[in-house]
Specification:
The protein has helices at about 15-25, 80-85, 105-110, 120, 125, 155-160, 195-205, 220-230, 250-270, 280-290, 295-300, 320-325, 355-360, 365-370, 395-410, and strands at about 10, 30-35, 50-55, 60-65, 70-75, 130-135, 140-145, 170-175, 185-190, 210-220, 240-250, 275-280, 305-310, 335-340, 345-350. It is α+β, with helices and mostly antiparallel strands and about 425 residues long. Helix 7 (about 195-205) packs antiparallel against helix 9 (about 250-270). Bound molecules: flavin-adenine dinucleotide, D-malate and zinc ion.
Length: about 425
């Protein structure tokens, strides 16, 4: 999504952010907080003439306690840089995204990013210990706790996690980093049907249990996308569905033994048709590339209609089938992939350029379908500019009404990322 703005400010310190917001608030000048600009719903894009406040230069790592695992840093640190830093102390970041090379931790918090290992480490609401946030009037809210336990009053940091820059600008972050696993294995498996994928998930929870760190889906149409558009190749022959399972643990022999037993069981019972296991980093990276590079691969088609929904697992793939039947003939492809382990489907359609007739086939049909299953129309990407008017498909009138009251209380002049997240009504 392209935006327009005449001013981009790149503060280095919290005090500078505070001065900018104080100035803008007094003059009712709208601002857009911007991190790595990798968001997928237009949240960081200026719609009219908003001033962009970029965290690009706020990239200092402040401290790392390698015993407790608590990292404190500025909001503009790039996720991959943080991963490299903590990894030298045998720690890992508690989340991982395909956009890690560009996205900022402040942007991750503002979107409550989920990603590839939420199944293992939980959401940022659990890992983030504290935040420093500059409010609309320039006041600095210091909630930068480094404690794991602190039940003193309302836990205000949670308000800002997933608030998409509408309640304050995150400037500092304290986050808990788990131990870096000593042994990582990846299995890439082929299944004949989606119900076999679900059988595999059930077995993986039972048999891999505490070492399971990711369970991702790629359907055949997705595999074709990375083959055709990025020239990648699959390590196994063609199947209707592929599952990527990652295990992470502390004892290589134990993990490998468990994984071998699990795979033997899947093959013997016919749940899985074929598969391969990777233990060396390059092979692991190549397999992960098939999944992580799907967003990039889709862009090569031209225009990408992107959907990111939560659904009960029994309905998960039904939406892809319904959409393929409805819009398949009008598009280049309709593909489904995502974080099965978290009930999060990424459904994508492409055409060579934007077409309103295709959009009319997709929306609001897709949101009605998801709402009919009591799912969420935005599992992890947020509502931003593109999806804000569909909020009622996932949230009650009373919930949205309270959100608006909170927004008004914290930003009475409406300068913080207007036109985003909340509906225009
Ligand atoms: P931006 O895009 O710059 O901003 C996103 C939103 O946060 C905007 O509303 C912006 O105003 C606000 N914001 C940014 N910084 C601040 C701040 N300091 N204070 C307050 N508000 C702020 N998302 C997932 O959840 N899971 C995935 O697996 C995933 N994979 C991705 C893979 C690719 C290849 C790409 C391109 C994107 C992916 N995303 C994923 C989406 C995106 O990367 C995430 O939403 C990410 O968290 C955005 O971070 P950012 O720094 O780029 O934020
Ligand atoms: C992913 O899981 O790959 C991301 O959320 C991006 C996408 O939806 O394409
Ligand atoms: Zn995702």
């Amino acid at each position: 999504m392209a935006g327009t703005s005449q001013v981009v400010l790149r503060p280095k310190t919290t005090d500078e952010v505070s001065a900018i917001l104080k100035y803008c608030n007094e003059r009712k000048i709208a601002v857009v907080p911007q991190g790595g600009n990798t968001g997928l719903v237009g949240g960081s894009v200026p719609v009219f003439d908003e001033v962009v406040i970029s965290t690009q230069l706020m990239n200092n790592i402040i401290s790392l306690d390698d015993l407790s695992g608590v990292l404190v840093c500025q909001a503009g640190c790039v996720l991959a840089t943080l991963e490299d830093h903590v990894s030298a102390y045998n720690l890992t970041m508690p989340y991982d995204l395909g956009a890690k090379g560009s996205c900022h931790i402040g942007g991750n918090i503002a979107t409550n990013a989920g990603g590839l290992r939420l199944l293992r480490y939980g959401s940022l609401h659990g890992s983030v210990l504290g935040l420093e946030v500059v409010l609309a009037n320039g006041e600095v809210l210091d909630c930068l706790s480094t404690l794991r336990k602190d039940n003193t009053g309302y836990d205000l940091k949670h308000l800002f996690i997933g608030s998409e820059g509408t309640l304050g600008v995150v400037t500092g972050v304290s986050i808990l980093c788990p131990q870096k696993p000593n042994s990582v294995n990846v299995a890439f498996l082929g299944c004949d049907s989606f119900s076999r994928v679900l059988d595999t998930f059930k077995q993986s929870k039972q048999q891999l249990a505490e070492i399971l760190s990711a369970f991702e889906l790629i359907d055949a149409a997705s595999m074709l996308t990375v083959k055709e558009n990025l020239n990648l190749s699959s390590p196994i022959e063609d199947y209707p569905f592929y599952v990527l399972i990652e295990t992470s643990g502390s004892d290589g022999n134990h993990d490998k033994e468990k994984l071998d037993r699990f795979l033997e069981h899947l093959m013997e019972t016919g749940i899985v048709e074929n598969g391969t296991v990777a233990t060396e980093p390059t092979k692991i990276q190549n397999i992960w590339g098939l999944r992580e590079r799907l967003a990039e691969a889709l862009m090569h088609d031209g225009y990408n209609y992107k959907y990111d929904v939560s659904l009960p697992l029994s309905k998960f793939y039904g939406l892809v089938e319904a959409m393929r039947e409805r819009a398949g003939a009008a598009t280049i492809r309709v593909i489904g992939y995502g974080h099965v382990g978290d009930g999060n489907l990424h459904l994508n359609l492409t055409t060579s350029e934007y077409r309103q007739d295709v959009m009319d086939l997709i929306e609001p049909y897709i949101y009605d379908w998801v709402s009919g299953c009591h799912g969420s129309i935005s599992a992890e990407h947020g509502l931003g500019f593109k999806k804000k008017d569909f909020i009622y498909h996932s949230k009650s009138k009373s919930a949205v009404s309270l959100m608006k009251k909170m927004k008004h209380l914290m930003d009475p002049n409406g300068i913080l990322n207007p036109y985003k997240m909340l509906p225009s009504d």
